[in-house]
Amino acid sequence: MRQILTISGWEFRRYIKSRSFLLATFISPIILAAIIAIPSFFYQNSRFTRPQTIGVVEFDSINYQKILSEHFNDSLDSENGFSEIALRKIQADTSAVLAGFFVRQENLRIERDSLDDAYNKIKERRKYIFQQGASKRREQQLKETYEELHRTRESRDLAVIEYNRIESITDSIIRKAVFDKADSLLTAKTIQGYIVIEPDLFKQGKIEFHSLLPINFFRIDRLKQMLQELLVEERMREEGITSSQIQEWLKPIEIQELRLEGSQKREFNVMLTYLIPIIAVLFLFISIFTSSGYLFNGMLAEKTNRIIEHLLGSVNSLQLIFGKILGLGILGLLQIIVWILVAAAAVLSHLILQKDAGFLTIQNAGIFILYFILGYLFFSAVFIGGGSLFSSEEEARHFNQLMRIVSILPIILAILVLETPNSLLVRILSFIPFLTPSFMILRTPLGQPPPIDYWISVGIMIVFIVLSLFFAIRVFRAGNFVHNRKLGSRELLALLKKG
Amino acid sequence: MDVVIENVTKASGEDLLLDSISFKACRGSVFGVLGPAQAGKSLLIQTLVGIAKPDSGAITFDEKPLNGKIRNMIGYLPEKRGIYQRQKLIDVLIYFGRLRNLSRKKAKIEAIRLLDRLGIIDSMEQAVAHVSREVQEKLQIIINIIHNPDVLILDEPFRGLHPLNQDMLRKMIYRLREEEKTIIISTSQFNEAEKLCDEVLFLNQGKTALKGNLDKLRQKFHAHLVSVESDDNLASLKSIKGVKKIFIDKQSAKLFVDSDLPKNEIIQKIISTVNVSRIEINGPNLADIFYVVINSKDSA
């Protein structure tokens, strides 16, 4: 036991002053917090966030752009206090191109109106003639006016057709010019995208969105919400509902989220409730992989530098392994205690609000420490076993890469826990030793897992720790005979059998 | 402390790495485990200190198997050795002293005493990486004697050692022998073994080729070796009756001759066969003996 304590003390002192430990304990969490906090800060602060300009292409006189902008401005007070989207109506100057068409169209309109007027007058005159007594003259006049009416109607219809044709041409030219203008603004990145509101399609709830790159979906979602409100308003207005009623009805719902904690219910911050467990898992993995990484690299270096034989000449394999695990485990615990104290200090100094820090309880800290110990012991055994297979850092690189992937896996799978912390799948995954520490830490504040899950997960971890340590020690002993080469699988099996 | 190895065997798959090895190293003597590279010397040494486990056989220290207490009475200098680089010399020595069950105070006192004796006391507060290779070698020797071991096991101790340190180590071994310590040296440097060892074990491909007291072995092989130098073709010496083996290197040859033949008769026959510029009958050195042994059917 004395040797184990000597080794643990040596390993603890060896790494506590190292730059990498100070970096992992103090700098990495700051970087991690900055990575999470800075984008959020920029996103929420209007001074750093330039609103994205979205163009509005519309071919109606309703002026949706103005209405939508008013909607956005109305929602500012209750939201972030700045506009995430600036709307810009897309207009094109077609006066030069369309000048000839407009003159022609105007002449046609005058001609059409004049012919229409003439046509109506002829009809009036025929009505008057018809009311006269029957005579040969009347018959003659009716016949003449009929022909005149027919000619005038034909001329008028021709003028209408021509007028419509010219109108269609000008519309097409205007549409093309507006789209060209919108596309050029898009290419010049003056606008980040533009919506096309075709009145008929809009009434069916359809809108086109044109962009060069995928736009921030949070913002487009906001725009979609505004358009939806606009459409509903229009439909309600058509049903004869007053504007004041519409505004009252469309007032956004404010949900006050309360959480049952024992016999009390407390308000809680949804964002922090999700964010904090993820940060906790990242911290857990920093801690586990810092300590077990030291163990792995230290043992590999001792093997590469041939210090291991000096050590094994002094103590046996078990004493060496347990001494190292103990020393570096205490180092990891110290790291966690530092973080817990920093978090407590942040709460006491009101940097984190008390109501937002409901998860920072002694019980949760205890659970965190428990799963750190279990995770550390398990990964230490894996690292010792894995590291013993190689005799140089070069050879061990692939194993290290594999372990990095393993370390990322729980973060990738965390989405499952965030969605349904107590689903069957999540519960099963919680009992896989590689995932157990992170999943249980995630589930604790999110789902308050049933006590049986804690018991099962701890039981499974203990079984796997014992098994993995058993094999790790055997592989370690076997690996000590191998220098400057990789331990072959057959050779390993033979050595394992011999113990 | 007497160290006894009885029928130690170790295999890896089909390969027999150590084949029923037995010997006894007594207190106050230096025992040499000799042999070429890959003979199994280091594995035997690792088995002795408990790093490797034998498949069969027994190893005892004063008739007791290796345990924690006995381990603390052994000093082991491995063949391939290195040491922590970032730590101070004194801290490394205290650490290894503590591992050998010394108190912190005792470890520090012993460390300072040995650093002073080996003339590197001025470097004690320096990081290992910042001292010379010579000092690092001395540091590694101190690590293994800081606890005043009863048994000192040295695996290829002279290989790669600075010449000054080689001499220092030799003197240290002599002194420890005088102090009734048991010293086991594994080496492929036969000349060093010849200077130091009282008893030797020749290992070849994991098997005992020869073992015994060095003086007796020398006597046993004394009359067999004849060194000849000549400008003539020395291959003709093969035809001389009684020559069992001949070793020709340019204009010199070593003849291993039947021990029954009288020396004068051998010399006469050689002189009558070639024009000799120099002839000498010497006691063969350990390398010669090893050569004879491994090439002789009736060896050991």
Overall pLDDT confidence of chain B: 84
* Greatest interface: A-B, 27 and 34 residues
Quaternary structure type: heterodimer
The proportion of residues in beta strands of chain B is 25-35%
Output the strand order for the largest sheet of chain B.
6-7-8-3-9-10
Assign the structural class of chain A, choosing from mainly alpha, mainly beta, alpha/beta, alpha+beta, or little secondary structure.
Answer: mainly alpha
Order of helices and strands of chain A: HHEHEHHEHEHHEEHHHHHHHHH
Total count of strands of chain A: 6
What portion of residues of chain B is helical? 25-40%
Strand portion of chain A: 5-15%
Widest sheet: strand ordering of chain A: 2-1-3-4
Average pLDDT of chain A works out at 80
Which residue ranges of chain B are poorly predicted, with pLDDT under 50 across at least 5 consecutive positions?
Answer: none
Overall, the morphology of chain B is: elongated
Q: How many beta-strand segments of chain B?
A: 14
- Largest sheet: number of strands, sense, barrel closure of chain A: 4 strands, mixed
Cα-atom radius of gyration of chain B = 23 Å
Instruction: Look at the helices and sheets of chain B and give the structural class.
Output: alpha/beta
